[in-house]
Fold this protein.
Amino acid sequence: MAATWYSSSHFAHNILFMIFFSKLRKYLDDNAKYVWPPIWVILGLVMGLCCISYQNSKLINIGSAFVWSLAYFVIGALAGMIFGVPNVSPESKVPTTIVPNNPQPIANINSPDIDINQQSNPGLHKKSLANTNLTQISDWLTKVIIGAGLVELREIPPFVVKVATKMAAGVAISLQPNILSQVSMMCAGILIYNTSFGFISGYLLMRIIFSSFI
């Protein structure tokens, strides 16, 4: 009796699991572009945080390093979203053809009740234009960032070293020179990884997901 009940319960659990798995698979297939990109972004971010957590806690403050890495990721993601804003082509007046069900005789053009513009263009309707403020701001910031980056290209490596040194002074447990040098190298890696990954993530999320809502 117990064996029969166990086999029936096990069979019912398998059926429920198969139904749930099929529903989940159908949902993932139908919403693949809204599900998988955020998952990959979260996995990449978690991988970077795991690399930080494996560092020697006697050298750095893990919590402070997490905060710095998340800040770099957010900065890179915002820059990537600015670069990834799609261009919106505004639509002007679009003529449409209207076919009346009951055609009326042609009215006298000299009649005061007849609008000449409406008579000459009966199918011309005004359509609201798309708001392109965000696109214009994105284009302007993109040009400024690219122009400034090309002009100051030589200053980027010293700037990264300077930021990593400042970060190391706040992350390192001790301010001894040998410890600060080791922590500075790690901070430079955190800066480059999280900023680059944040930029790519923000760009892809804007192009794949957020562009459909603009």
Observations:
- Strands lie at 94-95, 124-125.
- Helices lie at 2-30, 32-53, 62-84, 116-120, 133-151, 156-171, 177-208.
- The first strand starts at residue 94 and ends at 95.
- Residues 92-99, 116-120 have pLDDT under 50 and may be disordered.
